[in-house]
Design goal:
Elements (H helix, E strand, L loop, with lengths): L1 H12 L3 H25 L1 H12 L10 H32 L10 H17 L5 H5 L19 H9 L12 H6 L9 E5 L4 H12 L3 E6 L6 E4 L2 E4 L1 E4 L9 H5 L3 E4 L11 H23 L5 H6 L1 E5 L11 H17 L6 E7 L14 H12 L5 E4 L3 H21 L15 H6 L9
Parallel strand pairs: 1-2, 1-6, 2-5, 6-7, 7-8, 8-9
Antiparallel strand pairs: 3-4
Bound molecules: NADP nicotinamide-adenine-dinucleotide phosphate (NAP).
NADP nicotinamide-adenine-dinucleotide phosphate (NAP) binds next to helix 9.
Length: 441
């Protein structure tokens, strides 16, 4: 026991002060998010928390000042007090184990005090307290996408108006990522191309299970059905053909998430027709649908709800033993990397290893398992969703994506018209919301 204690003290002594400070801040943020999550699942706390949900209209303007102030006393002040109480825990642990630099663990308490004082100031109606201290609830247009690591206004809006049982995080998105609540699929209208294929059907099935309203986009003749507990459930099916993507324009207006999943593999064929077909189906039809979908992003709500997921393949970085499949999928992958620099909504890439399907009868993974993993990672807000048995892809793909993205940023110009079609380019709003200003710069 004495040996263990001295080992812990020695390890503790080697932790830099900066790490102790940052950990204590992260700790209180985790406490905040846990308290918030609990508030949605425990009716006693929800009775207090519901005041926070009564305050805002869909544009985040406040319904009445008195409700806003009351919500601070019922929700924000108790939340800060709980954070303050738990902020003492790291200090207590350090004290018990005799770890030096215990004062550094007070950083979390000091940090929490700023939130407590902010909540009290807002509760008492001190002028400008809300503007200065309540940045994720400021009204006005959105100028950036929901952020990946830090909660911004577009991220938090979804907690109020997309799904109150998701997007719980308050400052860092870590807790949502861990709980799988960083993207809600519930009630989202999700369209999948290549819907009658192996992965297409599995995606539709698992999306349906998660509460999404699924739409099958198929180039086949048959309406698409999915197998739910042994019985065939018909899915809303829309027919389309490569080359006639624009005919889908009006239907895409109604879609929240478009999953571009269709694809072919001409294997060893290297004729002129095989080249044309591979690029037309695998590259250009997906690119045309991507652009068409971008045009449907018109409002604040579109910016935060709409997404495109593009199934490019592990062939972006690894051989698929099919040159035209690799060439056409790599071309698609690079176009997506280029265009998502300016995308008006979230664009995810899906990078898959070999799974069994009509396209790849010798694939090792099952399409059902692959579909489950894709959704699992999307709900954790992975923007590059890698599902494979090849460990090299987990290194090669992020590295390649980072280098290509950097190269494209350096040697291409920002598309001037990004979000130009969105409402209200009022400069005063731009100033107030400088946090969300990235996309319009
Ligand atoms: N299987 C693998 O090992 C693997 C690995 C990495 C990535 N992928 C990618 O995963 C996606 C799904 O493939 P899968 O393995 O599930 O193969 P699949 O069962 O053959 O499904 C592909 C679907 O794409 C659609 N499609 C095929 N030719 C088309 C055309 N000319 N025009 C429009 N749509 C066409 C068809 O669906 P509709 O008839 O409903 O339109 C077809 O069922 C593809 O993009 C593929 O490249 C597969």
């Amino acid at each position: 026991m004495v040996v263990l204690e001295s080992a812990i003290t020695a390890i503790g002594a080697s932790i830099p002060v900066g790490i102790i400070v940052l950990s204590s801040l992260l700790w209180v943020e985790i406490v905040r998010d846990c308290y918030h999550t609990l508030s949605h699942h425990w009716s006693f706390l929800y009775r207090l928390h519901v005041w926070h949900h009564r305050v805002f209209r869909r544009d985040l303007s406040v319904i009445t000042d008195s409700i806003y102030r009351q919500a601070q006393w019922y929700n924000d002040v108790p939340e800060s007090l709980v954070m303050l109480l738990f902020s003492l825990l790291p200090w207590g642990v350090m004290k018990i184990w005799g770890i030096p630099h215990q004062w550094a663990a007070w950083a979390g308490s000091l940090y929490t005090l700023t939130f407590l004082l902010g909540a009290i100031a807002r509760g008492t109606g001190i002028a400008y307290a809300d503007e200065l201290t309540d940045v994720t609830h400021r009204p006005g247009d959105f100028y950036s996408l929901p952020s990946r690591w830090f909660v911004n206004r577009p991220y938090h809006w979804r907690h109020h108006f997309d799904n109150q049982n998701a997007y719980y995080s308050g400052t860092f998105t870590l807790v949502d990522k861990l709980m799988g609540t960083a993207l809600s699929l519930k009630n989202k209208r999700i369209a999948v191309t290549g819907a009658s294929g192996s992965l297409g059907r599995s995606l539709l099935k698992h999306l349906h299970t998660k509460g999404a309203k699924v739409i099958a986009l198929t180039s086949g003749e048959q309406n698409v059905t999915i197998n739910i507990n042994g019985s065939q459930l018909p899915v809303k099916t829309i027919k389309w053909q490569v080359g006639s993507e624009s005919e889908l324009a009006s239907q895409l207006e109604q879609v929240d998430i478009l999953i571009l999943n269709h694809g072919i593999n001409v294997h060893g064929n290297r004729t002129a027709e095989a080249i044309a077909k591979s690029y037309e189906v695998n590259t250009f039809s997906s690119w045309r649908l991507l652009e068409l979908f971008f045009q449907t992003v018109r409002s604040n709500e579109d910016i935060v709800r709409k997404e495109v997921w593009v199934n490019t393949s592990e062939a972006e970085v690894n051989p698929a033993f099919s040159p035209l499949y690799e060439l056409s999928k790599r071309a698609l992958g690079e176009i997506v990397t280029l265009r998502r620099l300016d995308a008006p909504c979230v664009v995810r890439k899906i990078i898959l290893g070999p799974f069994k399907s009509n396209l790849n009868p010798i694939g090792v993974m099952s399409p059902d398992w692959v579909a489950k993993q894709i959704l699992n990672l999307a709900q954790r807000d992975f923007r590059n969703i890698i599902v494979t048995i090849n460990p090299l892809t987990f290194i090669a793909f992020p590295l390649k994506e980072f280098l290509v993205t950097t190269y494209f940023k350096l040697f291409s110009n920002k598309a001037k018209d990004v979000l130009a079609h969105l409402p209200n380019d009022d400069q005063s709003t731009v100033k107030t919301n400088s946090v969300d200003h990235k996309l319009r710069k």
